[in-house]
Every structure is written in structure tokens, then in C-alpha cells.
Design a protein that fits this description.
The complex is a heterodimer of chains A (about 600) and B (about 450). Chain A is of the alpha+beta class. Among the domains of chain A are: about 15-80; about 185-240 and about 320-410, D-Amino Acid Oxidase, Chain A, domain 2; about 485-570, BFD-like [2Fe-2S]-binding domain (Arc Repressor Mutant, subunit A), CATH 1.10.10.1100. Chain B has helices spanning about 15-25, 65-75, 145-155, 170-180, 200-205, 265-270, 305-325, 355-360, 430-435; strands at about 5-10, 30-35, 50-55, 60-65, 80-85, 85-95, 95-105, 105-120, 120-125, 135, 140, 155, 160-165, 185-190, 210-215, 215-220, 230-235, 245-250, 255, 260, 275, 280, 295, 335-340, 345-350, 350-355, 385-390, 400-405, 410-415, 425-430, 445-455. The interface between A and B is large, with 59 and 52 residues.
Chain lengths: ~600, ~450
């Protein structure tokens, strides 16, 4: 261990490893307080940083600096006053559904990564359980992003991000066709704000080439104006990336999980991993609020908690910091004004950790504005701030037909970032039956199918050590998606309603969602019962009235289908009941 | 095969406006199809169990459901056809009339009509539209939703509520929630004066000792699964929160009554021009929009404070739609704008049709003009009703004048007090209109309404 002295007079002890001394020097240079009192040590190849940081921003900057020194990972345990270390808050549910069960593979986390890994693993005849602590899959980062399937240009050449992004981008379109999920490829315009930035084109083209991006073009000012008629006047052409796509990230995640279930995987919602029991170095049992199960292989796809889950297995060789992003959703009426994904990064952003946000036309016809990017503690802090919305105005100004007044809502997400700012996709070096898919920040959605392929391959390698691994018989690539009557022509829609009148009863007037679609969501192979889960699947409550009219009707359908009392229908799982009970004398 | 229905007038929405329009159109001899999204007619009145409805129209104090039943019974007695739980998915102009695609539990229905009456009502503004930040737990709801839960579903939305906004539904819900045993810790209004009717401030807040905090708003919500509290703050004249005035208030429910927005998605899809001040279609004195054959009424045109006036505009629209759909030559529309001065928040109608005013003045109106309808008072004659709201409270009152561009005065009245929450109304005979405007032609033709503020004595 090396402690940066509290007073400048004492030099660091010389016995310390040279890299730690380099780290100490760098921290002392970077920190406002000279890093005094911060202790550095090496553990399992990673640098461990302990002590006190004056602010979260500085804690993160120290972590970034340490990441440049060639350690395996950065475990940044600096404490920050006012930002206490967070602990998992497990669901209120407690039963023994998992007690004593055995699965060849236990996946921790039901985001897009965990769900894609689950589906990929069902190609093999392994028993698979996916554990998700929320009442639905895609409850966190996988539903709190802009749905962009990035082209792969923005990632740092040579990074895992770059490789997985480009591969994932190619995989999503056929995957969406199999899953019955809409995918569009509007392409992305990086607008040049000045003649000077336009001069950067050759450098950008070289980066795109190194990353293996599928196509790029220079668009002149006139071409941009012709192809994107509402673009604001002050552009100097654009860098166009035709491979950038969009999809609904939560619909895709739900579809992946459902496809996995249809092929034999089990998904346990409201199920939180609380600890792991190791036997001779291997994970033997996974403890949850619903009992402990045995596991052949464990996949850590725990999003913003993936460092904590790694720690449960004694393999916390990295730690996460959180980068918040806030986005606004504009009314469904605005989509017709925007043809491409677009943004205009400022020159100063070129060195930043994100690509800077912009405008995204969604598959549903809305426009998403954002995201912002700010380092802030809070693994699940989705509260929004007024200043974040003001920051989004700059994107809206890129299009003459858009205004923040068209926003119907806004939301925040949290990117799980390692200090290396790259993905961790690998077999654990310390625990032989653990695979990490961690630190999956942007472009994680775009990369998900490729990450899932690699993780499934690693799991199969491990599993073949304790059993024979063969392809599953009768594996079905296609998922039969529930009907969406509003997308059908009059005759097909009429026939659907004649078969089931519930498809003719419109419950959500803004998004034209029928009772039948809500019943389908509640009764699907991944049954859900919260308003938010129904909303993510059907769009009921997502429109301009924001559930003002449809909430009572959706509640009634959910209560009827699940046998729950009407008042006990929840917004997002137990503890979030919409009502506290019946009124005086009411029989509900 | 989908079903097809051919009719004279389609009325969209069976709240008070649509019911009145459908009745008036039938009484004028038109074939009518009334289309309603919900399982029962009556619109939002179904959940308004408080009284105070019908004072103008029926000279009695009715509850919302009682008020709605009057026109529902009238419509049933006329043998009117209503499609319930029916939803229009597409509307377009076709062959001089309208073609509507509609779905209900029986399948897809193609409706075609000669005239269309939009009585689509309004929706509530949400927490996001007033930019409340912080967490997103359960327990944030609009006043109308709270009203539906309590009065229709028999559900208690929480135990301790704070109300943001002082719109009428919010005030009424303060009383209602208190009577159901909830604690209402206060109502916060960002404006320096209440948004609702004075009588509601007295009867719903003051009578129950519920504090009303003016120039105060909610800036953020706190809570994981359920609301645990909100932050309130004083606001300055520009309604911006004043730093340092934040206060944390413990509550499990936040009820919003922060304004209503006319629902005009269908109007927009038909290319009907809207008035940015009202957010509803621009109409003439017959509630005829700028798209021939499309009429609009009720809260879809502008947010009324009394259901009675909603019904009145429905009667007017229904009668005019029937006349439009009747065989024979339609009088040529000669639209003259009504310009409202800076003292007005808005004035409706935004246009006067001299063509139909002249036709009615000479007694030559088709269809509707001849039939005086039973069971309704306002709007049964052919006098043109004007509605307006003042932009600011004028405690000393004001003089309101309507005149032609060349200064011929058509109307003048002194109001003892004007307040934005209280809608005002006056009427003119079509005779006066056509006389005064007889000589007006060409681009300069217009009416002007002005407001002269009087200082309190």
C-alpha cells in the first residue's frame, strides 16, 4: 500500500511498486487537494484507491487518471461526502421459488444484455434462469436510452466498444425481424457547425475506416438541406453514417426475454441476488430474496450494479461510476419533421466521453432530444433537473420545426461506466464459472447482440467442463409477436376484431391501444402486472395525456386478468400501489 | 367486410357538447350518428357528482350525471343512434363530405357524412407539461383522474395530498378528498390569484380550512415507489421559483390541476386551422370552422367554466351542421374576422359569417332556423353568442365594446369586475350584425372588440 502523505514534506515510501508511485504522482497533480490521505494498493492486478475525495467529479477524475496506468482495472473506493455508498434495495417480495433449484446458467440482470444472453444460450440444451430484481425486464438503463443502434463511428478505435458496436449494428436488423420488433435505419448526420469542423472530414473518415463502420459519406450543405429539409440554416455540411438505426429498446428487450422463455429459459422477476456462496473458488449457490439456487455458470449482466455483483463472487476488479443522461420526448406529431438522427457536436466535445447527444426519430414517430451527460452519483437516480432540459434546447434548435414546447415528457437514465470507459466482456480470471458483461454503457444497446454471442460462447466453454453441451432441439428463432391492430389495414383489423372483440375496444386514446393488447401483455409468456410494464409493451399511457384517461381502464383490465384488487394495481411493482384502498363504504 | 354507415351529420363525442349537438341536429331534421369512445354517454359529467350544473340552462341546481341525463334522455326520445366504445382512427374529406374510419367491438366501421361536429372535449395538462422534476413514484395524478378514481371506481388515491394549481377540478377535489377522509395539506397556485371560480375557492377550500398558497409552486417530487414528499417554492412575477424559499412537504399524493387543453388531434388531421389563444378551432358564430362542413363545440373550441355554455355551443353547432347537410343551396360564406384587443385572453367566435347572418336575419335559414328546440333555453334563438375572458383581473371592471372597423358600435357593456377564470358572454342578433356590416366588403372588413379598463372607485 502507498498513502499519499497528508503533508507535502514526506515523499511516498520508496518500497511501493513503481506504477503505484506513478499513480500517486498523477493523483497529486490532478486533485485539487493534492490527493492527500488517499491510499493506493494493488489487488489482483487492479489498482485500489481508498480514502476521501472532495467531490464526486474529482473522484471520477482520479479514477480516469488511474485507468491510464495499465492496471487490469480500477477499483475506486474513494468516499465522497454527501454521496454515501449505495446498497441494493431488494424487492418487498419474499418466497422460496428458487430454493434448492439448479440451473446450468444463472444470469444476473434482465436488461438488454441479460435478455440477449438468455436467448442466445437457449440455442444450447442448457437450463437457463434469468434473475431480475425489478417487476419487469428493461426497467433501468435498457428502457432509459434513446433507442439508437449506433453506427460505431464514435467509439474509440481498438476498443471493445468499437468492435461490439459494429458487429451488433449488423446483427440487430435480422434479429428484429426474428423477434417481430420494428427496426429502422434512418442513418445519422453529424452536422458541421463551421467550415473548420467540416475540415475534420478526412480524420473522421479515417476513424470510421479503422472502426470498420459500414459506410460513411460527406454531405455538402446543399445535400443536407435537400435530404433534411427542416435543418437549421447554420450548418456547413455533415458527416453521414447510413448504418445508424433505431429501435424501441424496451420492446426489443422484452422480445428477447420472451423469445428466451419460448425456448425454455426461466425468467424470475422481483428476484434480487443478495449474495453468492463459493466452494473451492467456484460459485456454488446464488442467494436471492426468493431462496438460494445452485448454478453451473453465473453471468454478471447486472448493469449499474455489476461491480457489486462481481464483489459478491469475490471478483471486484473494476468499479463503476455513473453518468446521468436526460432526454425529452417530443409529441408523436413531430416525427414527420425529422428524417435522420442528427447532432452537432461542439469542437470541445471531440475529446469527451460521449458523442454529445442530438435528435433521434423514434420508430414510433416521436423525436427524442438528448441525452445530456453528467457524472453524478446515484445508480438508480432518475430524478430530472430543470437545468438539464435547458441544456437540451441546443439540439432542438438544429431543426426549425421543433421546439421544447412540444415535449410530452422527459426522463433520465444512468450509464454504468468503468473508469477505462470500455466494456468488460470476459471470463473471470479469478472465479472459473463466472462471466462478466459489465460496464455496458453507450453503445451498449447497439452492441448487445454481439456481446450476447460472445458471452454465450464463453458460458458454453465453461459448461462443457461439467456436462456435454449440445444444440437444443427445436429451437425457434421466430417469436410470434402480439398483434398491433393500429398497424393493420381496415380488412385485417376488422377480421382481428371479429375474432376477438377486445381488439376493437380502444383503451388508450392517444396511442390507440386496445384492451386486447393489454390482455396480451398481462398474459404473455413473461406475464407482467404493473402499469409501467404494460406501458412499455403496449404504449398505453405513453401519449400526450400521459395516462390521464386510460389509467383507470388499464387498472381494471390488469386487476381482472391478475385477480388483484383494483386499488392494489401498481405503477412499478410492490410498494408502488396506485391507490391505498377503497373509499368509505365502497365495495371494490 | 367492414360495415358502412351513411348519414347527414356525425357528432364526435357524447359529452354535454356532443349530446346537445346531436339533439339539435336531429330536431332540425338531420340523420345523426353520435360516436362516443366510452361505454356510456355524458363525458366527464359522469364523474362530477357535485352540484351546480344547469343553473343557466335549466334554472335548477343539478349534479353532473343529472345534467347529462337531460340531453341523454332527449336524444333517446328522438330515437338517436349512438355508437359506444367507438373510436375514430382516421378522418378525411371525401366527395364533398367526410369519411371516417371507426373501430368498435363489432369491427371496423366506415362512416360517411355530409357534415361533421367535433365535440371532443379537452384533456388535462400533466406534471411533465408544467415541468415538475425529481422522482417518478406512484401517487402523482391529475385532478380529473383522482375524481374518476374516487367517484366512479370507489378508490382512495392516497392519505395525504397536496394540490398543485387552483383550477376548478382541483378545488372540487380538495373538498371531495377531504370528505373521503384524506388530509389535504394545501393548494399551491403559481399565479398570484386563483385559477378557479370564486365560489369554488370559498366552498371547497375556505369552508374546509384548506390553505391556498398563491405565487407558490411544486418544483420537485421525492419518493422511490410511492410519493414521500414534494418541494414547494415561492415564485416571482415571471413564475420562476425563488431560490431559498424551498420547503419540503410530506405527502403521499400530488394532485395536479394546472389547466386544460382542447383535444383537437382530429381537427388537425382534417386541416382545421386552430387559434393559438384558445388551442381550439377558429369558428364563426355558427361554430363552423374554417373547413366547410366541419363544426366544433364545447371545450374542444375553448375551455368553458360552465357546462351550460358547452351545451349552448353544441346546440348551435348541431343546428348549423344540420342546415349545412340539408339539401339545397348553402348560403355562400362571407367570413369577417373578429379582432380581440390586447385586454382579452381570447374571444370566441373568431369570425363572423355575414352570409349566414344575412340568411338568418331575412328568415331564410334552411332547416334548423325554423325549428325552435324544446328543452333548451340558450341558443334556441338565432342570436350570435360571443364568449371571452380578460387577460388580467380588473377589479374596477371594464367597458367592452364591439364595433365595425369604421367605428359603428354594435355592442357595449360595462362589467363590474372581470377575472380570467370567469368566462363572460354576450349576444348579438344576426339582424344587428348584418345591418352593421351591410356595407362592408373586401379586405378591410372586420369586427373589433375592445376593452377599456376602469379603475376601482
Amino acid at each position: 500500500m502507498l498513502v499519499i502523505p497528508r503533508k507535502d514534506t514526506n515523499a511516498p515510501r520508496d518500497r511501493a511498486e513503481p506504477r503505484l508511485r506513478d499513480a500517486a504522482a498523477m493523483i497529486a497533480r490532478r486533485s485539487r487537494t493534492g490527493g492527500r490521505g488517499i491510499a493506493l494498493s494493488e489487488r489482483g492486478g487492479s489498482i485500489v484507491i481508498e480514502g476521501q475525495a472532495p467531490s464526486y467529479q474529482e473522484k471520477v477524475e482520479i479514477g480516469w487518471a488511474a485507468a491510464k496506468l495499465g492496471f487490469k482495472g480500477v477499483v475506486n473506493d474513494l468516499s465522497v461526502e454527501g454521496a454515501p455508498e449505495e446498497t441494493l434495495s431488494p424487492p418487498l417480495l419474499a418466497d422460496s421459488a428458487l430454493e434448492g433449484a439448479y440451473y446450468d446458467v444463472v444470469i444476473v440482470g434482465g436488461g438488454v444484455i441479460g435478455s440477449a444472453v438468455a436467448r442466445e444460450l437457449t440455442r444450447l440444451d442448457l437450463s437457463v434462469a434469468l434473475l431480475e430484481k425489478e417487476s419487469d425486464v428493461a426497467a433501468h438503463t435498457s428502457s432509459r436510452n434513446d433507442g439508437m443502434v449506433h453506427d460505431g463511428f464514435a467509439a474509440k478505435p481498438g476498443s471493445k466498444k468499437a468492435a461490439y458496436n459494429v458487429r451488433g449494428n449488423r446483427l440487430w436488423e435480422p434479429l428484429c425481424a426474428e423477434l417481430g420488433v420494428e427496426f429502422k435505419r434512418p442513418g445519422s448526420l453529424i452536422l458541421f457547425g463551421s467550415a473548420l469542423s467540416a475540415a475534420a472530414y478526412p480524420v473522421m473518415a479515417e476513424r470510421a475506416r479503422r472502426n470498420g463502420v459500414d459506410g460513411w459519406e460527406f454531405w455538402s450543405r446543399a445535400r443536407v438541406a435537400a435530404e433534411e429539409p427542416n435543418v437549421a440554416g447554420d450548418q456547413h455540411g455533415a458527416f453521414f453514417l447510413p448504418s445508424a438505426g433505431v429501435l424501441s429498446p424496451y420492446k426489443a428487450t422484452v422480445a428477447l426475454a420472451e423469445s428466451a422463455i419460448m425456448n425454455g429459459a426461466r425468467v424470475f422477476l422481483d428476484t434480487c441476488v443478495l449474495g453468492m456462496e463459493l466452494e473451492s473458488g467456484r460459485i456454488a449457490r446464488v442467494r436471492t430474496n426468493r431462496g438460494a439456487c445452485r448454478a453451473g455458470v453465473v453471468v454478471n449482466a447486472a448493469g449499474n450494479w455489476s461491480d457489486v455483483v462481481a464483489g459478491m463472487a469475490g471478483d471486484r476488479f473494476f468499479s463503476l461510476h455513473q453518468r446521468r443522461g436526460t432526454e425529452a420526448i417530443l409529441d408523436a406529431d413531430t416525427g414527420r419533421h425529422l428524417r435522420h438522427i442528427m447532432g452537432m457536436p461542439r469542437l470541445v466535445q471531440i475529446k469527451s466521453k460521449t458523442k454529445g447527444g442530438g435528435l433521434v426519430p423514434t420508430v414510433e414517430g416521436n423525436v427524442l432530444v438528448g441525452p445530456t451527460a453528467a457524472e453524478a452519483p446515484g445508480r438508480e437516480d432518475y430524478s430530472t433537473r430543470a437545468w438539464e432540459l435547458r441544456e437540451l434546447e441546443k439540439h432542438v434548435r438544429l431543426n426549425t420545426r421543433l421546439a421544447m414546447g412540444q415535449a410530452i415528457t422527459y426522463f433520465a437514465g444512468v450509464r454504468p461506466c468503468t473508469y477505462e470507459e470500455d466494456f468488460v466482456v470476459e471470463r473471470s480470471e479469478r472465479v472459473p464459472n463466472l462471466v462478466h458483461a459489465a460496464g455496458i454503457q453507450s453503445p451498449g444497446l447497439a452492441s448487445a447482440p454481439a456481446i450476447a454471442e460472445d458471452v454465450a460462447r464463453m458460458v458454453a466453454e465453461i459448461a462443457s467442463g461439467f456436462r456435454a453441451v449440445r444444440p437444443r432441439d427445436g429451437w425457434k428463432a421466430r417469436r410470434s409477436a402480439a398483434p398491433e391492430p393500429r398497424r393493420l389495414g381496415p380488412e385485417a383489423r376488422n377480421a382481428l376484431i371479429l375474432g376477438n372483440p377486445a381488439y376493437g375496444r380502444i383503451v388508450c386514446r392517444c396511442e390507440e391501444v386496445s384492451e386486447g393488447e393489454i390482455v396480451d401483455a398481462v398474459r404473455s409468456v413473461l406475464p407482467v402486472s404493473s402499469m409501467d410494464a404494460v406501458k412499455r409493451r403496449t404504449r398505453a399511457g405513453m401519449g400526450r395525456c400521459h395516462g390521464g384517461f386510460c389509467t383507470p381502464r388499464v387498472m381494471e383490465i390488469v386487476a381482472r386478468e391478475t385477480g388483484s384488487p383494483l386499488w392494489a394495481v401498481t405503477k412499478k411493482g410492490p410498494g408502488s400501489e396506485l391507490c391505498v384502498g377503497p373509499t368509505k363504504g365502497a365495495r371494490v | 367486410m367492414s360495415r358502412r354507415i351513411d348519414t347527414d351529420v356525425v357528432v364526435l363525442g357524447a359529452g354535454p357538447a356532443g349530446l346537445a349537438a346531436a339533439c339539435a341536429a336531429m330536431e332540425a331534421g338531420a340523420r345523426v350518428v353520435l360516436v362516443e369512445r366510452e361505454e356510456r354517454v355524458g363525458g366527464i359529467l359522469k364523474q362530477c357528482v357535485h352540484d351546480g350544473f344547469g343553473l343557466v340552462r335549466y334554472r335548477s341546481k343539478l349534479s353532473g350525471p343529472e345534467y347529462a341525463l337531460r340531453d341523454a334522455d332527449r336524444f333517446a326520445a328522438l330515437g338517436g343512434a349512438v355508437m359506444l366504445e367507438a373510436f375514430v382512427t382516421k378522418a378525411e374529406r371525401r366527395d364533398g363530405g367526410f369519411s371516417l374510419s371507426c373501430v368498435d367491438k363489432g369491427g371496423v366501421v366506415e362512416l360517411s357524412s355530409k357534415a361533421l361536429v367535433l365535440a371532443t372535449g379537452c384533456r388535462e395538462r400533466t406534471d411533465r407539461q408544467v415541468f415538475i422534476h425529481g422522482d417518478r413514484p406512484a401517487g402523482i395524478l391529475t385532478a380529473g383522474l383522482a375524481q374518476y378514481m374516487i367517484n366512479v371506481q370507489g378508490l382512495l388515491p392516497g392519505r395525504r395530498a397536496l394540490i398543485l394549481g387552483s383550477g376548478d377540478i382541483g378545488l372540487i377535489m380538495a373538498r371531495r378528498m377531504t370528505l373521503e377522509g384524506m388530509e389535504v395539506v394545501g393548494a399551491h397556485e403559481a399565479k398570484p390569484e386563483p385559477s378557479g371560480l370564486s365560489r369554488n375557492v370559498r366552498q371547497c377550500l375556505e369552508d374546509f380550512s384548506i390553505p391556498l398558497e398563491l405565487s407558490s409552486t411544486v418544483t420537485s417530487v421525492r419518493g422511490g415507489r410511492r410519493v414521500e414528499g414534494v418541494t414547494t417554492a415561492r415564485v416571482d412575477e415571471a413564475m420562476r421559483p425563488i431560490p431559498g424559499t424551498e420547503r419540503d412537504v410530506e405527502c403521499d399524493t400530488l394532485v395536479l390541476s394546472v389547466g386544460l387543453i382542447p383535444e383537437n388531434e382530429l381537427a388537425r388531421s382534417l386541416g382545421v386551422p386552430l387559434d393559438p389563444a384558445t388551442k381550439g378551432p377558429k369558428v364563426d358564430q355558427s361554430m363552423h370552422t374554417l373547413v366547410d362542413g366541419v363544426f366544433a363545440c364545447g371545450n374542444a373550441v375553448h375551455v368553458n367554466d360552465l357546462a351550460d355554455y358547452v351545451s349552448e355551443s353544441g346546440e348551435t353547432a348541431g343546428r348549423a351542421a344540420a342546415a349545412y347537410a340539408s339539401p339545397g343551396a348553402r348560403p355562400e360564406r362571407r367570413l369577417v374576422p373578429v379582432e380581440a384587443g390586447p385586454g382579452f385572453l381570447y374571444a370566441v367566435p373568431q369570425l363572423v359569417d355575414l352570409g349566414s347572418a344575412a340568411a338568418e336575419a331575412s328568415g331564410g335559414a334552411t332547416g334548423a332556423g325554423s325549428a325552435g328546440s324544446a328543452g333548451s333555453t340558450g341558443g334556441a334563438d338565432e342570436r350570435a353568442a360571443f364568449y371571452f375572458r380578460s387577460r388580467a383581473t380588473m377589479p374596477g371592471g371594464a367597458v367592452v365594446r364591439m364595433a365595425t372597423a369604421d367605428g359603428t358600435e354594435l355592442y357595449k357593456r360595462r362589467y363590474a369586475v372581470l377575472r380570467p377564470p370567469e368566462m363572460e358572454r354576450f349576444e348579438l342578433s344576426p339582424h344587428a350584425l348584418s345591418e352593421a356590416l351591410a356595407g362592408m366588403r373586401g379586405d378591410g372588413a372586420r369586427l373589433v372588440v375592445g376593452m377599456e379598463r376602469l379603475e376601482p372607485k
